C-alpha cells in the first residue's frame, strides 16, 4: 500500500512538472495583464524544437536552447499583436495554438521524414535521471529509504528546476521592483504610466519570461519525459496549466498545489484503470480525468472559493495623448 | 478632422483583403521553407477543391460544417462574447443527433426523424453552451475559460458514453451500430441523379441546405428583429444597453443558446449525413476553425459562407495536395488557418491606423 502510494506520488511529480512550468509561465503573462491561452502552442513548439535540435546536435541542452528560442519567438508574436497592436488576446492565443499544431507536423515531416515525428532520442540527447548520493544504499531503509530513493531521487534536472522555479517566481513577483511593476501593470496600467514606467516594456518582459518557461515545459515533454516529439504531444496540458493558474488564483504556491493536485489525479487515473474499489466499484477513468476541468469551472463560478484575476487583464493599454 | 470619414470600401474591403493577402504570403513562405513551390502547390489546391465534380462536393461538405461553427462563433461575437467552445457543443450536438437516430431509426420515416434530429442536435449543443452562459451571466465566471473547460469535459463524457454504453456489440473500436437507412440524410448526388445530373459521389448531403437556411436565419435574426437589435447593442456597448433597459444577462444566455445550437448542427452533417453511426472525434477541429471563418467572414452571413467555402477548399485541396506531393501533410492547411486567424484577427489593427490615416488626410486636404 505504502509502496503504491509512493509510486503514485512519484508519477505525480513527473506529470506535474510541465504543468508547473507552463502555469508559472502563464502567471508572469497574466499578472502583467496579457491573457495567454497560447501556453499550449508555445509548449508544443518548444517540444518540437527541443526534440529536433537534440536529434541533430545530439545534446539535450542545445535542444533546450532551441525550445526556449522557439517559444520566446511565439511569445513575442503574441506580445506584438496584444501589446503593440492592441489585438484580442484570445484570438492571438488561438492563432498561435493553431499555427503550431500545423507547423510542427509539416516541418517534422519535411525534416525527418517520419510522419511528423522526430527520431527517437538516446543518450546525451535526453535529460537523464539524477540519482542522489546514497540513494541505492538507502533504498532498503523502511519508509525514509523509499521516499528518498524513489520519490525524491531519480528525476531529471528539469523536474527539480520546475520546483525551484516556484519560490523564485514568488520572490520575483512579490519581492522585487520588477515584480511590483509587473503586478501594477496588470492591475492599473495608468498608474504605472503616470509613474514614468513604460507599460509596454514591462508587458514585453513578462511575455518573454512566459516564453522561456513554456520552452522549458516543452523541452521536458520531448527530451526528458519522452524520447522524441510526437504529433500533438502537449495534448491539452497547456490548457490544464491555465486551469491550474486560475485554480491557484494567480499565486505561485497555490498554483503549485493546483498543479500537483491535477498531476495526482492524472497519475491516479492511470493506476485506477480497470481496478474495482471496495464499496464504490469501478470508477470510470474519464470521471477522474475530467475532475481538474470540473473543479476549475466550479471555482470560477464561485461555488468553492472565488478566483479573481488581475483587474486589467485582457484590456489593451492606450496611452493618453494630449 | 472628426468630420472626415474613411470610405466604407477601405474598412470593409481593402484592409481585410490586405490582412488575408499577408496571411497567404506568409503561408507561401512556409511552402518555400519546406522546399516546395507555392505556386505549384496552390495549383494543386485549387484543382483538388474545384477542378472536378467530386472535389467540389467535398469542398461544400467541409464548408457545411464550417458554416455552422462560423455562424456559431459569429453570433456570440455580435454580442461581445467569445465562444471558444464550439468544438464541445458540436460534439454534444452530434451525440443528440446520434441518440435520436439510434432510438427512432427503425420505427419512424426519414421525414419525421430528420426534423427531430435537427432539433435534437441543436438542443444538445445549446444545452452544452447553457452552463457556461449561465455562469458568465449570473456568476461572473469568464466564458472563454469555462467554454475551454467544457470542451475537455465534452470529450471525456463522449469517451465514457461510447466505451461504456453506446458501443456496438462485437466491435473493438468505440463506434455505435450503423443506423437504418431511414435515418440517413440523403446525399446530394442521390437527389440530383433522378433529374439526370451526375455530380459525382461525395459526402455532400442535405445538411448543406440546412446550413444555408441557418445563414438566412442569422441574417434575419441579427438585423431584422428587435431581439437582434438588443444583441448588437449589448455587443457594442453593454453599459448603454443596460441603461436602455436591456437585460444583459438574459441576452448573454440566449445568444449562447443560439450559438451552441448552431454548433450542434455539425452533428447533423457528420453523424446523420456522412458517418451514419455515432463515433469519437468527428468534430475534428471544426469548432476552432469556426473562429477563423467568423473572423475572415467579418461576422456577416455572406462573408461566412465565402470564408467557409475558402476553408472547405483548403481542407479538400490540402488532401489532394498531400496526395500529389507526399512530402506535404494535410496539416499545412491548419497552418494557413492559423495564419488567417493571426493576421485578420489578432493583427487586424496593424495596417488599420496607417491606411485610415492616409485616407483621412486625403479627405481633409
Automatic annotation (TrEMBL), chain A:
The chain crosses the membrane at residues 7-28, 48-77, 89-109, 157-174, 253-270. Pfam families: BPD_transp_2. InterPro entries: ABC_transp_permease. It comes from the Bacteria. Keywords: Cell membrane, Membrane, Transmembrane, Transmembrane helix. Its main location: membrane. It is found in: Cell inner membrane. It is a multi-pass membrane protein. This is ABC transporter permease. The lineage of its organism: Bacteria, Pseudomonadati, Pseudomonadota, Gammaproteobacteria, Oceanospirillales.
From TrEMBL, chain B:
Keywords: Cell membrane, Membrane, Transmembrane, Transmembrane helix. Its main location: membrane. It holds the Pfam family BPD_transp_2. It is a multi-pass membrane protein. GO terms for cellular component: plasma membrane. InterPro entries: ABC_transp_permease. It is found in: Cell inner membrane. GO terms for molecular function: transmembrane transporter activity. The keyword RNA-binding does not apply. The chain crosses the membrane at residues 12-35, 55-77, 89-106, 112-131, 143-163, 204-223, 251-272, 278-295, 302-319, 331-351. This is Nucleoside ABC transporter membrane protein. It comes from Marinomonas communis.
Amino acid at each position: 500500500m505504502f509502496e503504491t502510494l509512493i509510486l503514485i506520488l512519484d508519477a505525480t511529480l513527473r506529470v506535474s512538472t510541465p504543468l508547473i512550468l507552463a502555469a508559472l509561465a502563464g502567471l508572469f503573462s497574466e499578472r502583467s495583464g496579457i491573457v495567454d491561452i497560447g501556453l499550449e502552442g508555445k509548449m508544443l513548439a518548444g517540444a518540437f524544437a527541443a526534440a529536433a535540435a537534440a536529434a541533430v546536435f545530439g545534446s539535450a541542452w542545445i535542444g533546450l536552447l532551441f525550445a526556449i528560442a522557439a517559444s520566446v519567438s511565439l511569445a513575442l508574436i503574441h506580445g506584438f499583436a496584444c501589446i503593440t497592436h492592441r489585438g484580442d488576446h484570445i484570438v492571438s492565443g488561438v492563432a498561435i495554438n493553431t499555427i503550431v499544431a500545423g507547423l510542427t507536423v509539416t516541418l517534422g515531416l519535411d525534416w525527418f521524414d517520419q510522419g511528423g515525428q522526430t527520431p527517437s532520442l538516446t543518450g546525451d540527447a535526453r535529460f537523464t535521471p539524477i540519482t542522489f548520493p546514497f540513494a541505492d544504499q538507502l533504498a532498503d531503509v523502511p519508509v525514509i529509504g523509499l521516499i528518498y530513493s524513489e520519490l525524491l531521487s531519480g528525476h531529471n534536472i528539469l523536474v527539480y528546476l520546475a520546483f525551484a522555479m516556484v519560490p523564485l517566481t514568488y520572490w520575483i513577483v512579490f519581492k522585487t521592483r520588477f515584480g511590483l511593476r509587473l503586478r501594477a501593470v496588470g492591475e492599473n496600467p495608468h498608474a504605472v504610466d503616470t509613474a514614468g514606467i513604460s507599460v509596454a516594456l514591462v508587458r514585453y518582459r513578462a511575455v518573454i519570461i512566459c516564453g522561456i518557461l513554456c520552452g522549458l515545459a516543452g523541452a521536458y515533454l520531448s527530451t526528458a519525459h519522452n524520447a522524441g516529439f510526437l504529433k500533438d504531444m502537449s495534448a491539452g496540458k497547456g490548457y490544464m496549466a491555465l486551469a491550474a493558474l486560475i485554480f491557484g488564483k494567480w499565486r505561485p504556491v497555490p498554483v503549485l498545489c493546483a498543479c500537483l493536485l491535477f498531476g495526482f489525479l492524472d497519475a491516479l487515473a492511470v493506476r485506477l484503470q480497470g481496478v474495482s474499489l471496495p464499496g464504490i466499484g469501478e470508477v470510470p477513468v474519464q470521471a477522474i480525468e475530467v475532475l481538474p476541468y470540473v473543479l476549475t469551472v466550479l471555482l470560477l463560478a464561485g461555488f468553492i472559493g472565488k478566483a479573481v484575476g488581475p483587474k486589467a487583464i485582457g484590456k489593451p493599454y492606450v496611452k493618453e495623448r494630449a | 478632422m472628426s468630420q472626415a470619414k474613411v470610405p466604407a470600401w477601405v474598412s470593409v474591403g481593402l484592409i481585410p483583403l490586405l490582412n488575408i493577402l499577408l496571411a497567404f504570403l506568409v503561408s507561401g513562405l512556409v511552402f518555400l521553407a519546406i522546399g516546395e513551390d507555392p505556386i505549384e502547390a496552390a495549383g494543386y489546391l485549387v484543382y483538388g477543391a474545384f477542378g472536378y465534380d467530386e472535389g467540389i462536393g467535398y469542398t461544400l461538405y467541409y464548408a457545411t460544417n464550417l458554416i455552422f461553427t462560423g455562424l456559431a462563433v459569429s453570433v456570440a461575437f455580435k454580442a461581445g462574447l467569445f465562444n471558444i467552445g464550439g468544438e464541445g457543443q458540436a460534439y454534444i450536438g452530434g451525440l443528440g443527433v446520434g441518440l435520436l437516430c439510434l432510438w427512432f431509426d427503425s420505427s419512424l420515416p426519414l421525414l419525421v426523424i430528420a426534423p427531430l434530429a435537427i432539433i435534437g442536435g441543436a438542443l444538445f449543443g445549446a444545452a452544452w453552451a447553457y452552463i457556461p452562459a449561465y455562469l458568465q451571466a449570473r456568476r461572473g465566471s469568464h466564458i472563454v475559460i469555462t467554454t475551454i473547460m467544457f470542451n475537455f469535459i465534452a470529450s471525456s463524457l463522449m469517451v465514457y458514453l461510447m466505451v461504456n454504453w453506446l458501443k456496438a456489440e462485437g466491435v473493438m473500436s468505440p463506434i455505435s451500430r450503423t443506423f437504418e437507412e431511414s435515418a440517413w440524410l440523403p446525399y446530394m448526388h442521390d437527389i440530383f441523379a433522378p433529374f439526370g445530373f451526375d455530380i459525382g459521389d461525395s459526402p455532400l448531403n442535405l445538411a448543406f441546405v440546412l446550413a444555408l437556411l441557418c445563414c438566412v436565419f442569422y441574417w434575419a435574426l441579427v438585423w431584422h428583429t428587435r431581439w437582434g437589435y438588443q444583441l448588437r447593442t449589448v455587443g457594442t456597448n453593454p453599459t448603454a444597453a443596460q441603461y436602455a433597459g436591456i437585460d444583459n444577462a438574459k441576452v448573454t444566455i440566449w445568444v449562447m443558446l443560439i450559438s451552441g445550437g448552431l454548433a450542434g448542427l455539425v452533428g447533423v452533417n457528420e453523424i446523420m449525413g456522412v458517418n451514419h453511426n455515432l463515433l469519437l472525434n468527428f468534430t475534428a477541429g471544426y469548432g476552432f476553425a469556426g473562429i477563423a471563418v467568423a473572423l475572415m467572414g467579418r461576422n456577416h452571413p455572406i462573408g461566412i459562407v465565402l470564408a467557409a467555402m475558402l476553408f472547405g477548399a483548403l481542407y479538400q485541396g490540402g488532401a489532394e495536395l498531400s496526395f500529389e506531393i507526399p512530402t506535404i501533410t494535410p496539416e499545412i492547411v491548419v497552418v494557413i488557418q492559423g495564419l488567417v486567424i493571426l493576421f485578420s484577427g489578432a493583427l487586424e489593427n496593424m495596417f488599420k491606423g496607417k491606411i485610415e490615416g492616409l485616407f483621412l488626410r486625403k479627405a481633409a486636404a
